[in-house]
Design the sequence.
């Protein structure tokens, strides 16, 4: 049996509003992935999604799915 966890990491709102787009926060992604890795989780898959922000802007988010074997 396996366990799954999902993390959603979004790009910054201010950068999107002022510059039209912003980068995904790589340092935060690394921190989240390293924290899960220390606890035995592996990355199952990732997907980048675009969401509408207010009326004219779009914001990217990365959805990371982690998996590990259940401890039964």
Sequence:
């Amino acid at each position: 049996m396996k366990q799954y966890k999902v993390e959603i990491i979004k790009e910054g709102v201010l950068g999107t509003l002022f510059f039209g787009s912003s980068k995904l926060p790589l340092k935060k992604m690394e921190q989240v992935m390293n924290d899960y890795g220390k606890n035995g989780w592996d990355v199952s898959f990732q997907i980048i999604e675009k969401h509408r922000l207010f009326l004219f802007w779009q914001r990217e988010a990365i959805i990371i799915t982690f998996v590990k074997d259940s401890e039964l």
Observations:
- The helical segments are 13-19, 26-38.
- The CA atoms of residues 29 and 66 lie 13 Å apart.
- Residues 2-69 form one domain.
- The longest helix spans residues 26-38.
